[in-house]
Design a protein that fits this description.
Number of strands: 6
Number of helices: 6
Distance between the termini: 14 Å
Strand order of the largest sheet: 2-3-1-4-5-6
Helix content: 25-40%
Order of helices and strands: EHEEEEHEHHHH
CATH class: Alpha Beta
CATH topology: Pyruvate-ferredoxin Oxidoreductase, domain 3
Strand content: 15-25%
CATH superfamily: Pyruvate-ferredoxin oxidoreductase, PFOR, domain III
Largest sheet: 6 strands, mixed
Structural class: alpha/beta
Length: about 200
């Protein structure tokens, strides 16, 4: 697995209303700013009612980003709700060398991704039980900030410190502390999973 070398990097987030998909994109942009990068984040303009599919977009780069178009050809997908698989065209436009981070505790081969999974570099498709981690540390089934810890470990585009600083900007006191603890757990979980995938790839 290599780091992303695109500039800017296009990120698309998929979730359902009430899961904090738009907030995740905003936190990701702030984390990038904290790391000295340029970033933008904005939602799609469809329905955001509770439970409805929601998209949000983020671009991160080393130079000023002027385009405000929706992300149609992402380098990275963050899937906050695996029940969207097969319901909306999540993988549409994903670049062949793209990264995918899925919030699930279910083995990837059981998610029904079929051809979509087969055409991707297996080392760039990682899972994270973000909802389980959120329930443990936040007492709420909101996976958004947790997934950003996994994103940092998977792509190395932003740092764990940047994510933690973004959370401190958004939350205060015990809520911030709990989010940061959950983010750290997610970061180390994905880093371990990434290292295991690299070992399997080397062995074969």
């Amino acid at each position: 697995m290599t780091r992303l070398d695109a500039d800017p990097v296009h990120i698309r987030l998929h979730g359902r209303g009430g899961q904090g998909t738009v907030t995740a994109a905003e936190l990701l942009a702030v984390a990038a700013f904290e790391d000295g990068l340029y970033a933008q984040a904005f939602p799609s303009f469809g329905s955001e009612r509770t439970g409805a599919p929601v998209e949000a977009y983020c671009r991160v780069g080393s130079h000023e980003i002027r385009t405000r178009e929706p992300v149609r050809d992402p380098h990275v997908l963050i899937i906050q709700d695996p029940t969207l698989l097969g319901v909306v065209p999540i993988f549409a436009g994903l670049r062949p060398d793209g990264f995918v981070l899925i919030n699930t505790a279910t083995p990837l081969h059981e998610l029904g991704m079929g051809d979509d999974l087969a055409r991707l570099d297996r080392g760039r498709v990682l899972s994270l039980p973000a909802t389980d981690i959120a329930l443990q540390y936040l007492q709420r089934p909101t996976p958004n900030s947790v997934l950003l810890g996994g994103f940092a470990a998977m792509t190395e585009l932003i740092s764990l410190d940047g994510v933690e600083a973004a959370i401190r900007h958004r939350f205060r006191g015990p809520v911030a502390d709990a989010n940061i603890e959950a983010v750290r757990v997610a970061f180390h979980h994905v880093r371990h999973e990434r290292e295991e995938e690299q070992s399997r790839a080397t062995a074969t």
